[in-house]
Structure formats: structure tokens, C-alpha cells
């Protein structure tokens, strides 16, 4: 079973990804052009 910390890190990564998607949509779909690795929550 994954630890609570691991689950929390996944939640943070998902929120960052969703925020990036919304931000790129606001900028008329101009994405940054590169995938960012998710932060590890440290």
C-alpha cells in the first residue's frame, strides 16, 4: 500500500499539471513546449 506521503506527492503533481493546462489554455493554447517533471513535494 502506498504511503500517505507518496499519495500526497501524486496529488501535488496532478494539481501542478492541471494548473499548467489551464494556464496554457488562457494563453490561447500556447504551451511551454516541454514537459516539466513533477516536483517531489520536498
Describe this structure in words.
This protein is mainly α. Helices cover 55% and strands 0% of the residues. The chain is built from 1 helix and no strands. The chain is elongated.
Name the average pLDDT.
76
Helix content: 40-55%
Overall shape? elongated
Count of helical stretches: 1
Poorly predicted runs are none
Give the structure's gist in a few sentences:
By secondary structure, the chain is an all-alpha fold.
Q: Topology, pairings included?
A:
Layout: H1 4-26
Give a quick set of tags describing it.
42 residues; mainly alpha; elongated
